[in-house]
Amino acid sequence: TFIKQIEEHNPNIRAFVELNYDEARKRANEIDDKIKNGQKVGKLAGMVVGIKSNINVEDFHITAASRTLENYQGSYDATVVSRIKAEDGIIIGMTNMDEFAAGSSTETSFFGHTDNPAAPGRIPGGSSGGSAAAIAAGMCDLALGSDTGGSIRNPASHCGVMGFKPTYGAVSRQGLLDLAMSFDQIGPFSRDASGIALMLEVIAGEDRRECTTIDWNVPEFTSSITDPENALKGMKLGVVKEFFDVSDGPIVNIIEDRINQMQEAGAEVVELSFDYLKLCLPTYYLINYVEFFSATRKYDGRKYGERIEEVCGEEVLRRIQMGSYISQKEFSGKYYNKALQARSLIRKEITGLLKDVDVLVGPTVPKLPHKLGTSLEPMEMYAYDILTVIANLAGIPAASTPAGDVNGIPVGMQFQAKPLDDEKIVQLMAAQE
Ligand code: GLN
Predict the structure, then answer these.
(1) Omega of the bond prior to 131 within 30 degrees of 0, cis?
(2) Catalytic one among 53, 82, 127, 131?
(3) pLDDT digit string, tens, across residues 84-100
(4) Could you name the active-site residues (predicted)?
(5) Ligand 1, atom 10: closest residue by C-alpha
(6) N or C: which end of the chain has fewer CB within 10 A?
């Protein structure tokens, strides 16, 4: 079914940039045989999965949608990928993205843009636009993306699917090509909360090969969503005024309706205020530039593919140049150290707000996705990220779930919770279905 769907729609949507049907069929047959022989099968048995092109999968091309790595072939499986395979998930292909995950529209891919299956002719969001589009177009059951400043939640919002960014350190980044390693997290896309729960259960947990992972008791996410009717009873929802002030009217209306419904289902609303929203984008981008500059020094044309500066797109080059400039010794006190201080302040304020409530709820993205081919200034593109970068700056879990639409264009609602309260968000997502 999925292969048929991909063959029919992928040429127009371009959610996948590489596919391997033979291997997928082989794996499916092996799982079938196991079932026939009465052998035990894994949690993901028979589920078809798409993987963002910046996560290593053996024998696929791991290009990060850049010409720099056009011919780079994965020689090992990232930890998340080995865990998927160990649970009998079937990896069907690699999904499209913004070059090196640096974007919010999936327009900067070396392979060409991805279209939005839910709102054709518009961007699918990004940078994990291919993964979100693959789910929205029914090309696979589950997909993985990476989220540095919103790259899972933003395309989930624009494509009308669910996307989850775990607590920093809850899921291993081993085998992920870094954008900014102190923000990056891998997480799932799905059409429903049970898919999100299932994938989190498989990929979360400490990894000896990745030193920022946390040694935590991974909840049984799939069993914690069995009572969605009661999930909202007594739940304290924090509604931050500023998240609504920066969002477009029709989006605000949809989210407010949803909050009212949650209140009717037993949730309590607490109005909150966050004074540092204006600080979030500059802080995020300064740190992103510096960490990305550092991460790209290995693409010098000797070991992996081409020398990055010679072949990359405009946005990637901008970040490398800015990162190199900001990192100069004479500026350290001026930009990077200031950004680190601001980041601590933001983290303190946000976790402070979360002390009084269970989750923060609001829009995921403050505006609707633009039409493909519209040319945007960098600052206009960055403006999409204002509500999503907060969770990465603070290291907290956050997710986007479909909330409604404006003339058919999907709008997502974001939940953010305390570190390692990922389970609470999954329960709330299940209650939205
Ligand atoms: N749009 C943000 C950026 O360009 C976030 C990207 C991401 O999360 N990978 O950095």
Answers:
(1) no
(2) 127
(3) 999 999 999 999 999 99
(4) 52 (charge relay system), 127 (charge relay system), 151 (acyl-ester intermediate)
(5) 102
(6) N
pLDDT at 345 over 80: yes
Report the amino acid identity of residue 251.
I
ipTM of the complex: 0.98
Q: Which residue shows structure tokens 């609470």?
A: 424
Q: How far apart (Å, rounded) are the C-alpha atoms in residues 125 and 153?
A: 9
Q: Which 3 state secondary structure label does DSSP give 368?
A: coil
**Amino acid letter, 100:** F
- pLDDT single digits (tens) 222-258: 999 988 888 899 999 999 999 999 999 999 999 999 9
Amino acid at 428: L
Taking the centre of ligand 1 as the mean of its atom positions, its distance from the CA of residue 402, in whole angstroms, is: 20
**52 part of the active site:** yes
pLDDT at 382: 97
Task: Say if residues 160 and 118 touch (Cβ distance below 8 Å).
Answer: yes
* Angle, alpha carbons 394-328-331 (nearest 5°): 70
Report d(CA 256, CA 272) in Å as an integer.
15
Roughly how many angstroms between the first and final C-alpha of the chain, as a whole number?
24
Please report which helix (H) or strand (E) contains residue 11, including its range.
Answer: helix 2-13
Instruction: Count CB atoms within 10 A of the CB of residue 132.
Output: 37
Report in angstroms the alpha-carbon separations of 222 from 59, 65, 140: 31, 33, 20
Q: Tokens for 426?
A: 């999954």
Q: Domains plus CATH for the chain?
A: 2-431 (3.90.1300.10)
CA of 231 to the centre of ligand 1 (A): 31
Q: For residue range 318-340, what is the model confidence (pLDDT) as tens digits?
A: 999 999 999 998 887 889 999 99
pTM of the model: 0.98
Of 146, 151, 181, 316, best ligand 1 pocket probe by most atoms within 8 Å of the beta carbon: 151
pLDDT, residue 229, reads 84
Is 224 labeled as catalytic in the residue annotation? Answer: no
pLDDT digits 0-9 by tens, 47-76: 999 999 999 999 999 999 999 999 999 999
- Return d(Cα 14, Cα 291) in angstroms, integer: 29
Mean pLDDT of the chain: 97
Q: What is the distance in A from the centroid of ligand 1 to the CA of 151?
A: 5
In this structure, the residues whose C-beta lies within 6 A of any atom of ligand 1 are 101-104, 127, 146-151, 179, 288, 385
Phi-psi group of 407: left, alpha or beta (phi > 0 → left; psi -120 to 50 → alpha; rest → beta): left
Phi, psi for 430 (deg, rounded to 5): -65, -35
